[in-house]
Design brief:
It holds the Pfam family PEP_mutase. The chain is α/β, with parallel strands linked by helices. Helix content is 47%, strand content 12%. An eight-stranded parallel β-barrel has the order 1-2-3-4-5-6-7-8, surrounded by eight helices. The radius of gyration is 20 Å and the shape is globular.
Length: 296
């Protein structure tokens, strides 16, 4: 039997990164936004834990959503889109054996990259205060278990550190290097606080053997930097987890305010789909084709 590793399919996230294509991944958390994003010119999509927790449970991103909530939503999205899906898995939802279960569950669900954090449990959103991280050896062991648990090299491990806010950038970079040594495919230093910090991350983690990902959260702790500039700084991927949440909430609030004030949606300045376009987005054309062929 040959021990040669088969090449990655050309459409996998690994293959995209190995070709040197910069990945801009918008945050998705439900199927309408995921379907719209899937039709656009993005190499991959990112399932945001913040979005899943708030949309599915109506709760803040504070470790309340569990494995079943997140893996179930990841499965729905992964099977409903054509693009590779990167998915947030918080701290792995428990101890080391839970991390193994989470990695295998996300991989089985069709996710192509899983994001695991070094925060204490329950975790918090990376752009909120009072986050605490576990000791470095414990954080490294999480990544080692995740790498050992996956079944395919095309299932990528994203190792995130939240050490910058509480322990400083030096510690965050140290952890990034340790995570890469432990086998992580992608290193995620959360919430740098200036472009200079992003530049330093790119310089000091260059050559670590892993790709670098940046988290763009406008009005969060980090400045928003363009994809072109991030690529210059040494990053290979960037996520915009709030792009749909922020714009959708504003649009919903404005649409409802107009209806409440006017008793009608006629004349509303808020852009909206007509029913024909909505039917097409959600897949009614397939239903109608099925009924035409099979309905008596």
């Amino acid at each position: 039997m040959s021990n040669k590793i088969s090449p990655s399919p050309s459409g996998t996230l690994r293959a995209i990164l190995e070709r040197g294509e910069f990945v801009v991944a918008p945050g998705v958390f439900e199927m309408l936004g995921a379907k719209i994003a899937d039709r656009m010119d993005f190499p991959a999509l990112y399932m945001t834990g913040y979005g899943v927790s708030t949309s599915h449970l109506g709760q803040p991103d504070a470790g309340i959503a569990g494995f079943t909530d997140m893996q179930g939503r990841a499965r729905t999205i992964a099977h409903g889109v054509s693009k590779p899906l990167i998915a947030d898995a918080d701290t792995g939802f428990g101890g080391l054996i839970n991390i193994r279960h989470t990695v295998r569950g996300y991989e089985e669900a069709g996710v192509q990259a899983i994001q695991l954090e070094d925060q204490e449990s329950p975790k918090k959103c990376g752009h909120t205060p009072n986050r605490r991280v576990v000791a470095l050896p414990d954080a490294v062991r999480r990544i080692e278990v995740a790498v050992d648990s996956r079944r395919s090299r095309d299932f990528l491990i994203v190792a995130r550190t939240d050490a910058r806010t509480g322990l400083g950038l030096d510690e965050a970079i140290k952890r990034g290097k340790a995570f890469a040594k432990a086998g992580a495919d992608i290193i995620f230093v959360e919430s740098p606080e200036s472009e200079d910090e992003f530049q330093r991350i790119g310089q000091e983690l260059a050559g670590c053997g892993a790709w670098l990902i940046a988290n763009m959260v406008p009005t969060g702790r980090s400045p928003e930097i363009s994809a072109a500039r991030l690529k210059e700084l040494g990053f290979a991927l960037a996520i915009w987890p709030g792009v749909l949440m922020q714009s959708a909430c504003a649009a919903m609030e404005n649409a409802l305010a107009y209806l409440a004030a006017n008793g009608t949606t006629a004349g509303s300045p808020v852009p909206s789909y007509d029913m024909k376009k909505l039917h097409e987005l959600v897949g009614f054309e397939d239903v109608w084709a099925f009924e035409k062929r099979w309905a008596q």
